[in-house]
């Protein structure tokens, strides 16, 4: 079985940093272990930083921890430059940049809590899955 190629939607990072008990935290703990490969673009990294800093009062980490987490993700991810736009394709324009990255990276899935916002991904050979589903795919949950 090949290693899943994924893009982590920002809401998965936020959820994983709000609670250490859920599936999102498990996924964050597994980044860089070889269970799956993450893919990043500059726009997505900037969104991670902006949203996590905005959510800081609701998170169990510090601003410095956010920068370290994002830097770690950048160090283990496959980084991509996007030279094409599919916009507007999805209802939320911020989701379009996630789609564009997933298409460019030839990912298998976008991992998100908002799977309904990613309808029509099949056209691009992608699926939108929740964190629990990723954990099942990689064999962490049965």
Automatic annotation (TrEMBL):
Stored SUPFAM superfamilies: PIN domain-like (SSF88723)
Residues in PIN domain copies: 6-116
Superkingdom as given in the UniProt entry: Bacteria
NCBIfam families from the UniProt entry: putative toxin-antitoxin system toxin component, PIN family (TIGR00305)
Protein name (Swiss-Prot/TrEMBL): Putative toxin-antitoxin system toxin component, PIN family
Organism whose genome encodes this protein: Merismopedia glauca CCAP 1448/3
